[in-house]
């Protein structure tokens, strides 16, 4: 395989005693939309700022398109950034904001005018070209910031919480639009976000960060369905975690003894552990079937009592307390307006799931 | 009830502050040579004023000094504020901050005296500035004007969004370019305010100027001061009224400029 487009090679960045980014290595391919996902203080923004050149790695190297960029200042990098605050130039019109980077490239005026028009139509801002940033709404500013960052046709576009300031509805529309623009231009995007839903919708791949390290990299469905650690399982989406120990581990199946769950959980594959090893079984709320008496047989059935029902329109989330005191969350799509089998708070219920849907975590 | 009390307090405050100025302005239009006796409206003292070469000369010197000192103070203030705000922690940062703003609290007499000693020592050592005059007053006024300019510009610089400068850098601007394209326009209201402040302070100063001026470079406040020592004359009232008008107009321009900016933001 050819060299990756971006290679982050053992990069560490310390601020005094604090390791903001701790020995991160990551390869990103040309044309990829990569999401860096993490909570505040996870180091995702510092990593992005190192790619832009605003911070220098304490150790390690950053290679973009075959060139070592570690010591290259921001203005000399073929990389542009869309800032979280948008950072538009307040004293310049929309047009002049977009043209700024082109002037710095020494592009001829006629060509700049063409490119600005092109960018304005890309983000559908033609009519507001002469406005100043303070005369625009949040969504419009976001578009201008995107157009300005794309105008130079960078090899790599960095986006710091690009949709953070938009309301929910606008955010969903903009996510799709961003994805469309990215695939039509073929520019590599690296998006930093703390919003796991956004990361999953946007990203071709995700990198989950925690305490300065990348803890898992993969396609959104891989990270969601096959988390490799408790942290990732818990950070991405909602999860029920059952503590237990490996009781049996054979070539084709395994059994996890979990007093918390009140049963021996059957897993239809090997878990590659040793008997007696403590593990956790992770199970997403939507992968559990809830019923007073389950109509179909399941390899694993828990019993408990409904303590709370959280209704959120399309979904209802049932909070079920097991005999061990463990609370389990089960979500169900509200397919019918009036559920035929109305489960209420206080009802005794059965929870069924197949071992295929569970993930056994060693750490 | 408490509203009425508040209103009265505010009115009393304004009367306390402005009654002397208003009476001065009114008496500048008094026909009588006796300052405290009203004998009818006249603008003759303004005419007298315009025929007085000493006052006209002093006014011209004052304006020149104020203009140059304000420009110098704004430039130096911007540089000092940049160093203090933009360059992270460096050795002597606190010391620089303290030294730059010290003239705010230093007695004027001491500033004036120390500058005079400095100029005399420089003259002996280097043969410059070659006696006292316009340039020494400008330097002296720029010195304390800078202190005020730093405070005003620093406050604005702290409030500026750093990422706007980073965006310019990211779009290919070198550091100096970033400063002129983004930082300076962002600072503009503070620069105007600092300049006007330094200008007015220079126009007002009599103590420091008395130390570093020469007989040939007497500023307007010095002339007023010396005239008043011989007794208050209606001529001085007229002169003071003109000074007040000038300063008020400058203040109004500054207020209008900043109000216009705020108006644009709220659109």
UniProtKB/TrEMBL annotation, chain A:
Enzyme's top EC category: translocase
Pfam family, one: TOBE_2
EC number in record: 7.6.2.11
Gene Ontology molecular functions: ABC-type polyamine transporter activity; ATP binding; ATP hydrolysis activity
Catalytic function, reaction form: ATP + H2O + polyamine-[polyamine-binding protein]Side 1 = ADP + phosphate + polyamineSide 2 + [polyamine-binding protein]Side 1
Residue ranges of domain ABC transporter in the record: 6-236
Any GO BP: putrescine transport
Function text: Part of the ABC transporter complex PotABCD involved in spermidine/putrescine import. Responsible for energy coupling to the transport system.
Protein name: Spermidine/putrescine import ATP-binding protein PotA
From TrEMBL, chain B:
Any Pfam family: BPD_transp_1
Keywords linked to the UniProt accession: Cell membrane, Membrane, Transmembrane, Transmembrane helix, Transport
Domain (ABC transmembrane type-1) ranges: 59-254
Cited SUPFAM superfamilies: MetI-like
GO cellular component: plasma membrane
Primary localisation category: membrane
Compartments reported by the entry: Cell membrane
Tree of life domain: Bacteria
Membrane-related topology note: Multi-pass membrane protein
Chain segments annotated as transmembrane: 5-29, 58-84, 96-122, 134-157, 178-200, 238-259
Matching InterPro entries: Bact_Polyamine_Transport, MetI-like, MetI-like_sf
Protein's GO biological process: transmembrane transport
Family per record: Belongs to the binding-protein-dependent transport system permease family. CysTW subfamily.
Name of the protein in question: Putrescine transport system permease protein
